Amino acid sequence: MKKTCLQLAICLCIIGGVMTQNTFAQKPADSKYSLETELNLAGTTITAPGIKLRYFMSETMAISLGFNYSSSKETSNYTDLTTEASGSYEVSSSGMGISPGVQFHMAGTDKLSPYVGFSISIGMGSANTDGTDVGLDSMGVMGYSADVSSSSEMPWSSFGWGLNAGADYYFAESFYAGVEFSLGGSTTTYKEGDISWTAGGTTITATTDESTSASMGVSATGGIRLGWRF
Predict the structure, then answer these.
(1) b/e per residue, 161-198, with b = 16+ CB within 10 A?
(2) How do beta strands 51-56 and 142-172 pair?
(3) Mean pLDDT by 10 residues, the chain (230 residues)
(4) What is the CATH number of the domain that holds 174?
(5) Which domain holds residue 202?
């Protein structure tokens, strides 16, 4: 939290320091679009980067549309030490979303273009599990269990909003790097899910209830935005 607040303070100081100047960032005079992605510097997990397209309606105003997709799968294998028979348990998830928004660019330097804006995000996806010859023992510990299988599927959807502040730094004509901070909130709805469990040829099915969670706070991008203005 302290790191995020410090980053936000630095960003606001940069924006405040350049607002009194009268020129706009270095870029082609007739460029109307920009395409950007994000180089993730947070953590060690490699994920598919999102992309964002901006259309500059004027030198000071742009509309944007972002798109992101994520997918993950992890498989755990369990072996019976006596018979050496094995089973597997797979956990997977996928999701996609879009984020339209608007930005208002302020006077900056020859290379720096600070902005503020507003955006919303809409997403959907699902989380799934699939187990074969894997079950829980009397202590609730997962391990190999012959003729036991299970599966589950939980779809979800989300809606969020954000008040954004950031800056584009043009390190070369038409190419820029940037950071962005957001104050916003989001709501995630976990829809009714299906659970199936089979043991000894008998199958039991159940449906989970719909639930909702909400959050709000200040966040920063997990990396550096890299873009091309054309």
Answers:
(1) bbebbbbbbbeeeeebbbbbbbebebebebbebeeebb
(2) unpaired
(3) 46 44 55 88 55 94 95 95 94 97 90 94 98 91 94 97 94 91 94 94 95 87 83
(4) 2.40.160
(5) 2-229
